[in-house]
Amino acid sequence: MHLPRLTAVLCAAVCAAAALPAAEPAKLVLNDLEYLEMPGLNVMLAHDYYPEGHQGGVGVILNGQRIATNGDLRLDRTPGQWQPTPVVGKRVIDRATGEVNVHCSFPDESKNRKGFNPIEYPDLKFGYTVRIIPEGADFRILVDLDAPLPTEWIGKVGFLIELFPGLLFGKSFATENQTGIFPLQANGPGTLDAAGEYQQDALATGRSLAIAPENDTLRMTIRNDDGGTLELVDGRAQHSNGWFIVRSTIAAGATKGAINWLVSAHALPGFQSAPVVQVSQVGYHPAQQKWAMVELDRTDTRRFPLVVSRIGADGKLEKAFEAPGDEWGRFLRFHYLRLDFTAVTAPGMYIVSYGDLRSNPFKIGADVFSRHVWQPTLEYFLPIQMCHLRINDRYRVWHGSCHLDDARMAPVGFTHFDGYAQGPSTLCQYQPGEHVPGLDRGGWHDAGDDDLRIESQIETVYGLALAYENFGVDYDGTTIDQAHRVVEIQRPDGQPDMIQQMEHGLLTVLGGYRSLGRFYRGIIVPTKRQYTHLGEFSMQTDNVVFDPKTAPANPPPIDGGVAGSPDDRWVFTEENPFRELNTAAGLAAAARALKGHNDALAAECIEVAETIWTIAADTKEPTEPWMKSVPSPRITLAVELLLTTGKRAYADYLLSQRGKICDNIRGKDTRPRTPRVGWIVGRALTAVGDASFTREVTDAVQAYRAEVEALEKKTPYGVPYEPDVWGAGWAIQAFGMEQFFLHRCFPELFPREAMLHALNFILGCHPGANTASFASGVGSRSATVAYGSNRADWSYLPGGSVSGTALIRPDFPELLEWPFLWQQTEYVLGGGTTDYLFLALAADHLLNETKK
């Protein structure tokens, strides 16, 4: 189950609580962040709104762990990712009574906008108010309807709250007449409803439900005081990523107090979050700045010295450094101490101790980043994600040759449920439903969606090209046999893996360009059943090209896994100069890396990139709002073409854009890679060869450095970090990669420490009780339960970099050991993969240069 860290934190919390003197019974109060709070218990309402990601509505954090969330009215018994959700209004508080309420309404038709998951809403409109009111240490949930529900919706609309399964497996539950254990998997019996949906029988029903009554840290009771019945349902019966659900329905004619629950959660008296020691799970180079953090409950006034100890071969600890941690102060809900132990430089294995707590072991040595850090990404993660090939790994087969039926032209005038939109034309010679040749080679499956987005494909190529160009990595650990569609992990074939991976990515990017006469937008399965497919990629389609001319009149259903069905992935096209120019920039960079390895492919990359330079109309209105806030990617393309071809025309273009370049050194958007042009243009200053241009860019970069320095001081970790619903790991990796180039181009302005702090953050020095490295299989502790292709097995993909610690608004950092939270543990291609690879290589390279 992989929950040892969770257990350790809770046990430490029990001990801390037991050590505190007796006090007056605590009660819930409304704090300055507008949620109910007492030691060991927090109750939020409408701080989060991400219901498909299990964040929103009424949420409960009990004894330091989020046990319940998404308390709200829903139209489905066990709602999933594409079910209707309400519009959530502004949160209203009453300081006198402590009440928090929010008015909501159905439907939220904004989610039907172009480019978002289209959701079918029924013909039902109603409004309601959710209220939470403290009653001593308990709290009451009330729902008032603006008007009674229509008769046909009685028994369908209900209030529900989700319980986190990872805390409850093996724990007990009880109602007045039923008892049981929260099961590890969803068990029957169940029946099909009128719509053909499977409905599992309730685990229990009653007026009152006791949750984990035997466990002091998890015990919670929900009592229904509106005269209705509670039911405990396993949401995983319909959705593999579901949670346990407690639910009651709205009665006929009900308005005021239509839902009335009293919730009693057992907060440990005097609860304090257990201290957490945060270090890099890999370690530190002797020459780098070394920080360790201690995360404390903000009410914890105890202080212990921080001790850095070298681990002897006999198991004995030799004290290498001891000091009190510097009082950094409050960040989110915690108080932080920071220890600077840069003075420790002797090679060896170490731990950091704080009182009775010990960190995981880490290394100090000049070779700390030379092995076991970036290699897993190159020799495991990228090969495993390769599409259209069989991936062998000694005794294991990660997946067979897959998607050999790619791809059919998407329907016109159509928006896919994952956001791909095909306009009124296919923009190519192929008609909707026709097979498009040349797409059954190359590419990597992106994230858990298994799709091929053009940006994820080219960003992966681009990142590999920059890494190869800057660090000359000729590492060879993988056999890639394109002719026979076979990959052998841990079997060298005499070719640099980075070059072969770039070639694989270009097979799909250029293959699509050759066939379509343009870059594709993306390639993705047509149905939700295929989209939510868990497991082996080669089973997602039948791998046989569907030909409507020879198909039977009634072919097998698409999503049943039956041979002969029209289950081929769809390919989408678009008019999007922004993405076209970005893709061309990746091609231009790849051409430099490929030179001398595959000159023909390098030449094709340059030819296509220069064609896009000529024909792409970047004056066209961007198709996505965020694109309006960033400079034209033509600047990036000009830099890459200048560095690749040396043609003066590209330098002249950059000179003509000096105003836009200097205004966008930092960018106006937080998205990685595209917004900030300082690191991109800085690489071309020598090639441009204009002194005034260099001065202007340097002045702009200097102003940006001042902003970065101010942002670094806002967190104890020394990186610009503003927690959000999604983990910030990928953005911080991108920041670190950019800092390498800024340090290289402007060493007097940008020290290397910013880049190294970013790497430390990824490798474990980040907020929250879970100190795992975001890079799976890297370091003494890492994210080994992740949202990858094998998430159903509670496993991981070595070298994948997860999204990372997310924020449960407004102030609770969380990284759960749970395989179905994409905003915390998802893997993605593009910068989410190659930025980490680049960052680890950059640290090894910079720190081991003979001249520093």
What does this 3D model show about the protein?
By secondary structure, this protein is of the alpha+beta class. The protein is 25% helix and 23% strand. A 9-stranded antiparallel sheet has the order 1-2-3-4-5-10-19-18-15. It is globular, with a radius of gyration of 28 Å.
Structural descriptors:
disordered N terminus, 42 strands, 852 residues, 9-stranded antiparallel beta sheet, globular
Number of strands: 42
**Global geometry:** globular
Order of neighbouring strands in the sheet with most strands: 1-2-3-4-5-10-19-18-15
Low-confidence stretches: 1-10, 12-20, 668-674
Q: What Rg, in angstroms, do the CA atoms define?
A: 28 Å
Per DSSP, the total helix count is 18
What's a concise summary of this model?
With 852 residues, the chain is an alpha+beta fold. It is 25% helix and 23% strand.
Give a topology summary.
Blueprint: H1 4-18, E1 29-30, E2 36-38, E3 41-50, E4 55-62, E5 65-74, E6 87-93, E7 100-106, E8 126-135, E9 138-145, E10 158-163, H2 165-168, E11 172-174, E12 179-181, E13 190-192, E14 198-200, E15 204-206, E16 208-211, E17 220-224, E18 230-234, E19 244-249, E20 259-265, E21 276-278, E22 283-284, E23 291-297, E24 306-311, E25 317-323, E26 326-331, E27 334-340, E28 348-354, E29 357-358, E30 362-364, H3 375-385, E31 390-393, E32 396-399, E33 408-409, E34 414-415, E35 421-422, E36 452-453, H4 454-471, E37 478-481, E38 486-489, H5 497-516, E39 522-524, H6 528-531, E40 570-572, H7 577-594, H8 599-615, H9 634-645, H10 648-656, H11 658-663, H12 678-682, H13 685-688, H14 691-712, H15 729-745, H16 753-762, E41 806-808, E42 812-814, H17 822-825, H18 831-847
Parallel strand pairs: 22-30, 31-38, 33-40
Antiparallel strand pairs: 1-2, 2-3, 3-4, 4-5, 5-10, 6-7, 7-8, 8-9, 9-20, 10-19, 11-12, 11-16, 13-14, 15-18, 16-17, 17-20, 18-19, 21-23, 23-27, 24-25, 24-28, 26-27, 28-29, 28-30, 31-32, 34-35, 36-39, 37-38, 39-40, 41-42
